[in-house]
Amino acid sequence: MSHGVALRxxxxxxxxxxxxxxxxxxxxxxxxxxxxxxxxxxxxxxxxSKGQLKxxxxxxxxxxxxxxxxxxSFFRHPxxxxxx
Length: 84
What we know:
Low-confidence stretches: none
Organism: Dankookia rubra
GO molecular function: nucleic acid binding
Mean pLDDT: 83
Pfam families: DDE_3 (PF13358)
Number of domains: 1
Domain Tc1-like transposase DDE: 14-54
Protein name: Tc1-like transposase DDE domain-containing protein
């Protein structure tokens, strides 16, 4: 959907439009998560297969699920307040 079409859909309604940059990894919480996963997986012995790599990622994601404060930290940037 084009920017203009989306804007016209919002006009006259009780909607707030947030303009996000086309690509800005520093404002994207999943980039922080990706970096965290990469750091954790590469800190361990190298995976020798896709299965081992997948298991390492799954294990790290499970460990993150038990650390809600760590997950919240990915959203602490002031620009992410719109999502809260």
